[in-house]
Design a protein that fits this description.
The structure is a single chain. The chain is an alpha/beta fold. It has two domains: about 90 residues, 2-Layer Sandwich (GMP Synthetase, Chain A, domain 3), CATH 3.30.300; about 250 residues, P-loop containing nucleotide triphosphate hydrolases (Rossmann fold, 3-Layer(aba) Sandwich). Strands 6, 7, 10, 11, 12, 13, 14, 15 and 16 form a nine-stranded mixed beta sheet that branches. The chain has a three-stranded mixed beta sheet with strand order 3-4-5, with helices on one face. A hairpin with a 4-residue loop joins β3 and β4. α4 packs across α12 and α6 packs parallel to α7.
Length: about 375
């Protein structure tokens, strides 16, 4: 006969796909009742009655509980967390602005791309890294959170376009070169300056994360503004499961400034996944190489942080030219040295991605031999 502790232990493999924590840790298991015949009744508490990932929990709980020895049947019911329970969960997760409602539920990996200073080519690399991941067969989205220096729309030929809103009142990302894209630039007049203080930035970023229909993605790359200001701290608060990729140049000064961005990530508990060095020398057509911005800064930073140096991206004219043309270099000239370096970084990110904790099967709605109802049966919500 299974015990309550056996069921709780089994349910720890059921992960909230947006918060990346299990439903036992999150306090979402309301009740467990076990009949003498081995039928287990489980009630799961959701954050909202119309939770769009309810089937995720339905399938996960069913498979997890059926895997416990002695279980002859499973009945699953749902209710909703009380306002007091929601407030407690907000505090536990550090999300005072509210709990997610499934917008990022199908996003497997979130990578914040940041730098200590501007002018290191962070946005260009974000676009090309996204295209390189897409070339590896991944579904990729790009969120342009560089609210003061937004440039992703121009780099992906989306300037002047406006997203639509779905019947579910979700913002639909624009698409370019197979990438889903959202930018503050889509909601302003072209090249209009953004003059916002912290609260407005927080509200806008929250909306981009939770009110955008991102759908199923393998990677969401977030292009951060340079430095360690409000935007970076807001995203760290909203996305505790995200990782942080630091872009720097080989120059000692840039590397030392990038270290401050790493310190910010550490203070807000964002895991640093790697370093990407840009402008790593220029090679002439006759093969001469000139380290215009110095050498070794990216490797020194990676060694100091004990993370991998994912790539050293050289200076090439096509990298700049394709950004101005609105087409990722890796999409049109994958043999360019800069494109090859970015592709190497993309493969490194894929290798570093954590294994998915629980693979959900498709629930068979009509089993060949359904168990006879025994004991108490909870109604489906």
């Amino acid at each position: 006969m299974p015990t309550r502790d056996d069921i709780l232990e089994a349910l720890k493999v059921v992960i909230d796909p947006e918060l990346h924590r299990n439903i036992v840790e999150l306090g979402m298991v309301r009740s467990i009742e076990i009949s003498e015949q081995g039928v287990v009744d489980v009630t799961v508490s959701l954050t909202t009655p119309g939770c769009p990932i309810k089937s995720h929990f339905q399938n996960g709980v069913d498979k997890a509980v059926r895997g416990v020895g002695g279980v002859s049947g499973v009945n699953i019911g749902f209710d909703v967390l009380t306002p007091q329970e929601k407030e407690g969960l907000k505090k536990t997760l550090g999300r005072p602005s509210g709990l997610p409602e499934g917008a990022l539920a199908a996003v497997k990996n979130i990578v914040c791309v940041g730098s200590g200073k501007g002018g290191v080519g962070k946005s260009s690399l974000t676009v090309n890294l996204a295209a390189a991941l897409q070339a590896e067969g991944k579904k990729v989205g790009v969120l342009d959170a560089d609210v003061w220096g937004y440039s992703i729309p121009r780099m992906l030929s989306l300037s002047g376009q406006r997203p639509q809103v779905s019947s579910e009142r979700k913002i639909l990302p624009l698409e370019s070169h197979g990438l889903k894209v959202i930018s503050i630039g889509f909601f302003l007049k072209e090249d209009e300056a953004v003059v916002w203080r912290g609260p407005m930035l927080h509200k806008a970023l929250t909306q981009f994360l939770e009110d955008v229909a991102w759908g199923e993605l393998d990677y969401l790359l977030i292009d951060l503004p340079p430095g360690t200001g409000d935007v970076s701290m807001t995203l760290a608060q909203l996305l505790p499961q995200a990782t942080f990729l630091i872009v720097t140049t080989p120059q000692d000064t840039a590397q030392k400034v990038a270290r401050r961005a790493a310190q910010m990530a550490d203070k807000v508990d964002l895991e640093i996944c790697g370093v990407l060095e840009n402008m790593s020398g220029f090679t002439t057509p006759d093969g001469q190489r000139f380290p215009i911005f110095g050498e070794g800064g990216g490797q020194r930073l990676a060694d100091e942080l004990e993370v991998p140096l994912l790539a050293q991206v050289p200076l090439t004219m096509p990298l700049r030219a394709q950004a101005d043309a609105g087409v990722p270099l890796v999409a049109v000239d994958p043999d360019d040295p800069a494109a090859q370096a970015v592709a190497h970084a993309a493969r490194g990110l894929i290798a570093l991605a954590p294994a998915q904790p629980f693979e959900l099967p498709v629930l068979d709605a009509s089993p060949a031999h359904p168990p006879q109802p025994v004991g108490m049966t909870l109604p489906m919500a």
